[in-house]
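Structure (tokenized):
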């Protein structure tokens, strides 16, 4: 998409000035940065553990809560 837009912009000077202005306004409207307040991200990580040790404990709990995957040889019947 970027390449396509870049190729089109190379020829924008071939358009009438009024149309160039309209296109510039449209591009500006659609490329304004999105302003997310920090508070929007506050809850995004609220369920993550506070420390590295807590994270390892949580991962260990997940690992032990699920049965191990059988070896690939067993899954493919190569035994």
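Design, position by position:
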């Amino acid at each position: 998409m970027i390449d396509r837009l870049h190729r089109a912009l190379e020829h924008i000077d071939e358009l009438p000035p009024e149309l160039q202005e309209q296109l510039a306004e449209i591009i500006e409207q659609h490329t304004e940065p999105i302003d997310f307040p920090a508070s929007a991200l506050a809850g995004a990580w609220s369920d993550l553990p506070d420390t590295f040790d807590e994270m390892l404990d949580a991962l260990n709990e997940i690992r032990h809560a699920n049965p191990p995957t059988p070896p690939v040889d067993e899954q493919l019947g190569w035994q």
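Reviewer-requested clarification: The two ends are 50 Å apart (CA to CA). The chain is about 60% helix and 0% strand.
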